[in-house]
Amino acid sequence: MSTKILLNTEKAPAAIGPYNQAIRAGNTLYVSGQIPLIPETMELIDSGIADETHQVLKNVQAILDNAGYSFEDVVKASIFLSDMGDFAVVNEIYAQYFTKNQPARECVAVKTLPKNVNVEISVIAWKAE
C-alpha cells in the first residue's frame, strides 16, 4: 500500500499558499512550483532571468535533497515563463542542473506568475526502492 507523505524544508522557500513544498506518494515525488525566492529571507531575486532561474533550481534541488531524490530522478519538469523570449537563457541554465537522464518537459509562456516573477518550475521525480 502506498503512503502519502508531506515534505517541507527550511532550505527552500516556505509555501506562500495552502500547499506543501512536496508530496511523496509511494516512490513518486511531486514538487510544487518554485519561484525565485531566497529561503532565508523570502525576498525575490529580480536581477534578471539568469539569476532567477538559478534560484528556482536551487530551491528545487533543496526540496529534492530533503526528500532523498536528485535531478537524475526527475521524470517530468514543467517550466512556466512570463516571456518566451527568456527561453534560451532558461534552457541554458536548466541544462546545468539536468546534466544526464534529462526528464520529459514542457515550457509554456503564461500571462502572469505568482508575485509577478519571470519563471516558475515544478518537477515530478521517481525512483525504485
Automatic annotation (TrEMBL):
Protein name as annotated: Reactive intermediate/imine deaminase
Native source species: Sphingobacterium hungaricum
Matches recorded under Gene3D superfamilies: RutC-like
Origin: domain of life: Bacteria
Gene Ontology molecular functions: deaminase activity
Signal peptide (residue range): none
NCBIfam families: Rid family detoxifying hydrolase
GO cellular component, one term: cytosol
Matches recorded under InterPro entries: RidA (IPR006056), RutC-like_sf (IPR035959), YjgF/YER057c/UK114 (IPR006175)
SUPFAM superfamilies membership: YjgF-like
Family note: Belongs to the RutC family.
